[in-house]
Amino acid sequence: MRVMAQLAMVMNLDKCIGCHTCSVTCKQAWTNRGGVEYAWFNNVETRPGQGYPRQYQDQDKWKGGWALNKRGKLTLRTGSRLRRMLNIFANPDLPSVADYYEPWTYDYQNLLSAPPSDTTPTARPKSSITGEDTKVTWGANWDDDLGGGPAQIGRDPVLGKLSEQVKLEFEQTFMFYLPRICEHCLNPSCAASCPSGAIYKRAEDGIVLVDQDKCRGWRQCVTGCPYKKIYFNHKTGKAEKCTFCYPRVEVGIPTVCSETCVGRLRYIGVLLYDADKVGEAASVRDEKDLYPAQLGVFLNPHDPRVVAEAERAGISAEWIEAAQNSPVYRLIVDYQLALPLHPEYRTMPMVWYVPPLSPVVDVLSQTGHDGEAVGNLFGAIDALRIPVEYLAELFTAGDVGPVRASLQRLAAMRAHMRKVNLGEEVDDSIAASVRLAPGEIESMYRLLAIAKYEDRYVIPDGASSDAHRLEALTTGCSLDGDGGPGMTAFDVMAEKFRLTDTNGAAPPDKAKRVNLLDWDGVSTKGLFPTTGNGSSTGNGSSGNGSTGNGSSGNQPAGNGSSGHRPAGAGAAPEPGAIA
Amino acid sequence: MSTLLWLALPYIALTSFVVGHVWRYRHDQFGWTTRSSQMHESRLLRLGSPLFHFGLLAVIGGHVLGLLVPKSWTEFVGVGEGAYHLVSVTAGTLAGVATAAGVAILLYRRFTVPTVRQATTPGDKVMYALLAAAIVTGMVNTVGENLIGGGYDYRSSVSVWFRGLFTFSARPELMAGAPLSFQVHNVVVLVLLGIWPYTRLVHVFSAPLGYLVRPYVVYRSRDPRRPDANRYARAWGDQHQ
């Protein structure tokens, strides 16, 4: 047994209203830069729908993820390592920007500067890549809310796997939203396909990151990821991806997408797993066995033997405790409500989903039935083949059993809690019918419906206490903070996000680094190695208040792209200039 | 003139090549990339890029054989001038045609696809000009001189001069006596070598051969945190003092 810890996420799709707040805040935090205009580390897609990039789930076309070869051995779908090396000069399976969408902006200036005329001036769409006039024909959520009708939605690759009759009915039947980030897989195919070895999985928390210094732009990872969650920055020539907001979770606060989620549907917690079992679990022959196989990889953090092994593996007491209190473990293992997204890609994804019951409830209510009566719900789950079969194609490689079981537990929770809330006599047989005790159902309800902040996010390094302190910044007295009188909110934030170089995360020579790409044609700053006493303050950017080099610029870990942006913000500050 | 071109220039170029690479490797890992434009355009690239790259690998192999292996060695193993000439001209022409066709497609793509043209930096333009010139003059040497023309035994002059550079006993007069097209090719390539480390051509030296043997998934540990007892004094000292 080799115990490793993983930060994992669960999203409760029942509560997603498709508001895209997660996408927008993520974009503002991470991809609001040149070269990744088209990239959304977090996106929300309507199912059924084509997704983003278009039809990314069609692996016959995009060749993402793993597959078993003729001898039953796990290999990347693109073939052997040698084959990828031979394709290195031109990747035959690389999506183009058009497959995502051509990013655009509007010529707002024209609204103000247009000369007097008979017609109202317009803001024309301009391509963000070329700056030329463009026609807006697709976007990251173009088919939102089934927009575009059957002509567009019919191209959903998941729908293609369902039977004809089901396909004909889907439109009237259901729709739901699927927010997606990088899966931070246990068996990441992006990392496996990276020729340079630049993509790595962090041993402590399992976050998958791209080392911006080691990436050489071979683009194999974009193809390797079946979720198409690696993006090629066409300006820097480097791959970028969701970082699980590592600068935030490292200090115990949730990712930006989770923090800003209006529906409070995201859960973050620690899972312990047996790294020795991952390869075997990913290689099971029948795709429908992949979900149970992955469940078998997770370890029970309450088992003293597991705890002992975890301690031996150097996992801290704080992390083990977090694993024991993990909401993610409860949803995935205890209640078996959450299911993995496309386990058939064999990457062992670690962002799981509670399937949505609301389409079923809606259908019942619309047809005049009581949508919360357990009998009706159970019947509807079985009768409405469409949602269940579709969800099974998403979450269990087509096996309807686990999806039905999960939906039934959600249905039972609704029916049970209605009786509790209405003060009716509680019917224990409801809980028993889904093999749960009434107490378990109520605790499940607290986790899913009440969903308190500190229950949703159990992140080591003092998640809840830090969150409270951050909240206190807006309402409380800043003098209460660590450091006493005179400590400003900015001080707390700076400490929180480690804007300073005191955590030693940045390489020692960071401030002296040279980057020819920074040249803007005018300033020679950053083009030549700095001399003298340049290293005393490291990359501390605290002086100018920019988050550039401080937090995300620590090179070895991640997309530290903000550390490399031209024009000021990211350029290494002259250490002397701060004082 | 002869000394400048065939003694000073090669040493300047090769020094720049070596020192430039070391300097850039140490200071600009982030800029070290292919900066691929395949996201913008794939169809032409899939045609031109493999032609160019595989052709160029053969061309480089040919240059190693022609420049670094002394004539006496090949003769020792029984390959006469006639046989060598036949092989080098045939293989050289094939590889050269592939490379030239590849670079022609890629340059056409650079000029005609707006997004790709926009992604081209001034440095790229200089590099492409030199690269194209090197390939064209190289083709003139192989096809013009050695295939259609009478054939020039560069192994008795150019190669000897080139090897002399590395033993610090170069004889510039050998190069000065070579046909003009060889001289032009030589100058172009030397300049290209000189600017090499400052262009995207550096990606040649990150050919990921290690991929064939490394484990699939790479694990890495976070940097161990330095214990810092007096965090605030350090972090804010510069600002408030």
Task: Classify the beta-strand content of chain A into a percent band.
Answer: 5-15%
What proportion of the residues of chain B is helical, as a percent range?
55-70%
Largest sheet of chain B: none
Structural class of chain A: alpha+beta
Query: What are the low-pLDDT stretches of chain B, counting only 5+ consecutive residues below 50?
Result: 225-241
Task: Say how many strands of chain B there are.
Answer: 1
Which stretches of chain A are low in confidence, meaning pLDDT under 50 for 5 or more residues running? Answer: 462-469, 498-503, 534-579
| Total of helices of chain B | 10
Assess the beta-strand content of chain B as a share of residues. Answer: under 5%
**Average pLDDT rating of chain A:** 84
Number of strands of chain A: 14
Total number of helices of chain A:
28
Radius of gyration based on Cα positions of chain B: 23 Å
> Based on the structure, what is the oligomeric state of the protein chains?
heterodimer
Q: How are the strands of the biggest sheet of chain A laid out side by side?
A: 12-1-14-13
Overall geometric form of chain B: globular
- How widely separated are the two ends of chain A? 52 Å
Head-to-tail CA distance between termini of chain B: 61 Å
Pair with the most extensive interface? A-B, 73 and 57 residues
Mean pLDDT of chain B: 89
Shape of chain A: globular
Could you explain how this protein is built, in words?
The complex is a heterodimer of chains A (579) and B (241). With 579 residues, chain A is an alpha+beta fold. In chain A, 36% of the residues lie in helices and 11% in strands. In chain A, helix 19 runs antiparallel to helix 21 (400-421) and helix 20 crosses helix 21. The radius of gyration of chain A is 25 Å and the shape is globular. The N and C termini of chain A lie far apart (52 Å). Mean pLDDT of chain A is 84; it is low at 462-469, 498-503 and 534-579. Chain B is globular and about 55 Å long. Chains A and B meet through helix 3, strand 8 and helix 26 of A and helix 2, helix 5, strand 1 and helix 10 of B. Strand 8 (199-202) of chain A pairs parallel with strand 1 (218-220) of chain B.
